[in-house]
Task: structure prediction
Amino acid sequence: MIRFIDLFAGIGGIRRGVVNALESYGIDSQCVLSSEIDEKACETYELNYHECPQGDICKIDEIAPFDLLMAGFPCQPFSYAGKRQGFGDTRGTLFFEVERLLEKYKPKAFLLENVRGLYTHDNGRTFQTIMDHLHALGYGTYDLLLNSSDFGVPQNRVRLYILGIYGAEPQMTLVTNLGAVDSHVYRRNQQLNLFGDGGKRNSVIADILEDDVDEKYICSEIFQRQLHNAVGDDLTCLHGWRMMDYRGGQSVHSWDMGMRGECSDSEKEFMNLLIKYRRRPEFGRHQDGKKLTLEQIKTFYNRSDIEEVASSLCAKGYLKVENGKYSPVCGNMSFEVFKFLDPESVSITLTSSDCNRLGVIQNNKARHITPRECARLQGFPDNFIVNPNDKFAYKQFGNSVSVPVIEAVFFDFLRNNMDELGWLNK
Result:
């Protein structure tokens, strides 16, 4: 029986993946402590594991003996703590709680998960500090970056995984693999795979979509109409497109949709050219927020109606002028959906703040992805109970780990280190 503690547990994604891997080896397990401060996440955890996590780990000291520590600890900036105490000290950070329990209880192994940026935070000093402290406790470590899209999860999500064994260096077959850089590259790779190696196909968005969804997930009639104004009758052309006012490329803008008032073809052309060309180096070295004079704009919109068009766009609120310089008015939060996912590719990384604003075109209608679809994008099985409040469900899945990646990482860890761990006979 392997006993574990589940810290910064969220809704239990790490636990689900680890237990699955242990069960693959016929190893029973028991959770002796789970800890999470978010009350709504605790609700979901209890619905699925029939135990409510304890609260703040900082206030927990006495724990029953355990063999494995797992934690998706927050990447709390070390730089602030360093300013107060000198860099190289973990006190004042949440990683310190992981370190404290490892030092006190010395479990045989640990699994930590974090964002990719932990590698480079503070020019790499944050990561090095963590490694130094883990090694000082007597743990050998192995770290790698993996993309969820390589593990049957149609989501472009790169995360850092750190594994450790007390008194030994972990051996692993898995190595860092960042996967496809974006959904467009992923789709091209899919097509190459289908033709190149006998029909291999990875998971895509179409695989996780629900056939029938509640009407509350369908975008408003106004928004639907605005989309049709922008692209015509067939909304499937929006697969993979973003809704944004500050980039060109595969984007739909508020002026294309007439969100602040219908725009003429000339007005749309003016705005699209402004978005496209205002970052040119001759207009300044800074990349964003450039304001251009009409004389500068004339270098790429050289039509006689320029003053009339600019005035009309200012009146409608798509453009603003300050001291004779013009810039777009960007109101991206007004879009009901900010990104339409491509059914034949993968999702962008889910985040806690905007899962609810990801969408798909299904049956030629625009709709939000559902909490259940978010669960599938993180690899949770359909018998996983979703929080009944959509607001909290979206946040929780945006914060979660991808279960199949955890399972694959820990299975590989077990396979390559079983003799050292000694868990088969435990």
About this structure: The longest strand covers residues 139-147. The chain is about 35% helix and 15% strand. The chain has a mean pLDDT of 89. The domain at 245-334 is CATH 1.10.10 (Arc Repressor Mutant, subunit A).
